[in-house]
Every structure is written in structure tokens, then in C-alpha cells.
Amino acid sequence: MTEAKLTDRPKDWTNILFLTLTPVFAGPVLIWYTYKTGFSLWMLVLFTVMYSLSGLAICAGYHRYFSHKSYECSPIIQMFYAIFGAFAAQNSILKWSAGHRRHHTFPESEWDPYSIKRGFWWAHILWIFHVDPDGNYIDNARDLQKNPIVVWQNRWYKAILLIAGFALPTLIGAYFGNAIAGLLWGGFLRIVMVHHSTFMINSLAHTLGTQEYDDESTARDNWAAALLTFGEGYHSFHHKFPADFRNGVRWYDWDPAKWFITSMKFLGLASNLRMTATPTIERTRMEVAVKRLQAKIDQAPKQRGMEIQERIIKARDAFSTAMVLWGKQVEERAKGRSAQWKEIRASYRATLKEARREWRGVLAALNSFSDAKADRTA
Predict the structure, then answer these.
(1) Domain residue spans in the chain?
(2) By 3-state DSSP, what share of the chain in percent is helix, strand and coil, each rounded to 5?
(3) pTM of the model
(4) Which residue in 262, 257, 265 sits closest to 234, CA to CA?
């Protein structure tokens, strides 16, 4: 790979024209045309369905399957990702995944294609306006070069985009008596919305939100971005645990891509879903919180501070033990040793519960200290 200054990069006029003209058709032209010809419910349904299909193909397919290999899936699902992912007009699987792997391998460096260190708008869209000197670098995707579906889609990507991404919604519109409305709603509006919701992960999710899992990275968990991207907005978690098939790890986190992959497993179309151990996740979250609260801990009275530090140590030890037990119970279950698995699982759950109790005790002690300090100040 090469290291090139931004000023040395020529403009990519094809991308510039496409990314500046499509919003014109998705905005003013669509509004004017709909005002002149009238709105029908099928237009919104067409947009929603095509937006969902292409968005899921990018999030669950391009990103979590092809780029990170966080699970395995059947050729049927891979073909779904290949066709509907091309709808999104974000390049082929091979090139998209190679670029994204560079983003994770060299985060926020000169080799990161959409590094937030170059500014919000560079990370959001301007990086696409320039020719990437490493744009054809695909050595980090040798596994994908052996996948026949990826190779096929890479060859026919533009044809799939034009035929399926634009011609299909036009034909659906013609069926309902308005081909142009089909093109505007299912083609242009859908592409612009998928583009900028995806781009938000590179910009907004590296700028605004919480850093629950890694305060040294710019990646942040942003629920608003998650709502528009089928769960991709939990970016602090993703950058810390990129191999996990989930982005929203809590049960209530909005992560339709996670739910889709889980559904495919239920249907026998996906397998080997990779998940980070719960104790690892919770200890990581705790360690980041401890760093954030350290100044507050240092201000506590000596005796209280010692108690808090002691509970932190106990929580760390319990989480570490829980991690070991988690691995053992997975191993025993894989071997079919039901009795041993249940026994270790019970120990694992008890140890994890103890770790959580100690951590809650730390937070409670800090809160009580803060309340007492506030009362004295008042």
C-alpha cells in the first residue's frame, strides 16, 4: 500500500456526479413529481422494502459476513447479499470488504480510507470524491477472491446495480401505473437514504455517542445511527469486538441485522455465529468506566477509597474467573458432557453474578460519596 497526501489524490468525477445528482432526484425532483402526480401508498411500501433489503445486505452481508466472517451462511444467503448489496451502490463485495478491513487494520491512520482524523465530512463522503491510491488493494481479501459468488458479483456489479437497482423499481412502478414514481421512490430515494445512513457510521458514529468499550478509539455507540442502519450504530462495541456477529449486544438494542442472522440460523441457513463471552464484554465495559471514574475515586475519603479499590479488584478477579468458566462450559457442551456442562454453567453464572454485585457496589459507593459531598457543599 502507499501513503498519499489528500492533495495528491485526483478527483473521482464519476463518484462526485453520482453522489451529488442522486440527491437531486431523491429530493426536489421526487417532491415536485409526487406533488404533480399524487402520492400512493405503494410508493412508500416500495421504498421501505427496497431500503430494508439493500440495508440488510450491506449490514448483515457486506459488513458482518464478508468483511468480518462473524458467522457462516449458505450460498443462498450469500447470493441474497450479493444481489441486494449491489442495490446499495456502494461497490462490490470484494472492494467494499477490502476497504473496510483496512479501516479496522489501520484505524485513524493514513491508510484508513475514511479516517475521522481527516474531518467529519471526509469520513462521511469526501473520501469517495477522491481516487484512493489503494483502491485496488485486495490482498487482505484473498479468502473472498476464492468465493465464486463474490467473484461473480465483482464482475457483474454494475449490471446488477443498473438492472436490479434501477430497472426493477421502475418496472414495479409501471405495474402500478407510474414507472417514474417507481424509479424515484424505489431507486433514487432508496439509494440516497442507504448511502447516507451507511456513511453516518464512518462520521457520526466516530464523533457523537458513548465510548463504553474503548475510550482510546474514536468509535462511539450512537443509537440514532443504529436506528437507520439496522444496528450498525453500536460502533464502540464493534470496534472493540469486530468478530462478534452482533453490534447491539444487549437484548433491547436495536439491531435488526443481528435478528436477521439469528433467524437464518433458526432456519438452518446460518451457523457458527461468533459471540464474545459475556464476562469479557462486561469486564471491558467496567475497565473503561473505572478509567472514567478514577478522578472521582481519588477524591473519596481514604477509607472509602480503599473499600472501592478493593471491590474493583474483587470484580476484576470474579470476571476473570467467569471468563475461564465460560470457556470450560462451552467446551464441555461441545463434547456432549451434559452433567459436567450443567455443573460448570452453574458455577459460571454464580461467579458472573458475584462480579456484577461487586461492580454495582463500586457504583453505589461512588454515588453515596457524591451525594454526601453535595450535601456538605450545600
Answers:
(1) 6-271, 278-377
(2) 70, 0, 25
(3) 0.91
(4) 257
